[in-house]
Amino acid sequence: MQSQPRRLLVVRHAKAEQEGPSDVERALAAQGHRDAAAAGRWCAERGLVADHAWVSAARRTQETWEDLAAAADWTVEGYVDPGLYAAGVDTAVDLLRTTPADATTVVVVGHNPTMSTLAQLLDDGEGDPAAEEDMASGYPTSGLALFEYDGAWADLSLTSARLVAFHVARG
To answer: Gene3D superfamilies given for it (predicted)?
Structure first.
C-alpha cells in the first residue's frame, strides 16, 4: 500500500448537442466546451494531476476529456474504451481495476446513469458530508466526484473510497 491515497475523479461528460448522426457521435454544445474547461480549471486549482484516464468512445466524452485535460494542463492521453459507452457499474469497476498499478490520480469520463451510480456506490460514507449531500442532490453534466482510495486499483470495490469533493463545473 502506498503512503498517500490514490485519487479517482468520476466525471459525467459535459453538455452535448441534442442531435447528431447517432448518439455516440453527438458533439459537445458550446456550453459543454466551456463547462469542461471550467472542470479542468477546478482540477488545476486543487493541484490534481491525472496520470491515467479512461474515456468512453462517445464523441462528447472524448471532447469533454480533451477540454478538461487542456484546461488542467495535463499531458496524459485518455485511453478510449469502447465498452465504457454502454457500461454498467460492474463493468466500470472492472475497467478501473485494470488501471496501471503505478497510477496515482485516475480520471474516468462517462455517461449517466453509470457515472452517478458508480460514484454513489464507491462512496464509503466516511468522506465529506457536504460533498455527499451535493452529490445526492443530482449528478448533472460536468459533474465531478473526487475520491481518495487507499488500496491497489486491482482491489477497488464498492464502498471502498472516500468522497472528498463534488463539483458541477460551469463555464
So the answer is: Phosphoglycerate mutase-like
Residue 1 has pLDDT above 50, yes or no: no
Q: Give bridge partners of residue 80 from the DSSP assignment.
A: 55
Q: What is the DSSP letter of 47?
A: T
Decide if 1 is inside a domain: no
Do the bridges between strand 105-110 and strand 52-56 make them parallel or antiparallel, or are there none, so unpaired? Answer: parallel
Tell me the residue range of the domain where 91 lies.
Answer: 6-168
Q: How many folded domains does the chain comprise?
A: 1
The CATH number of the domain holding residue 118 is 3.40.50.1240
Cα 94 to its chain centre, rounded Å, is 15
Total residues belonging to the chain: 171
**Residue range 119-131, pLDDT digits in tens:** 999 999 999 999 9
Map grid coordinates 480549471 to a residue. 41
**pLDDT on residue 171:** 84
CA distance 66 to 55: 10
| 22 vs 9: CA distance, rounded Å | 27
Asked if residue 50 has pLDDT above 60, the reply is yes
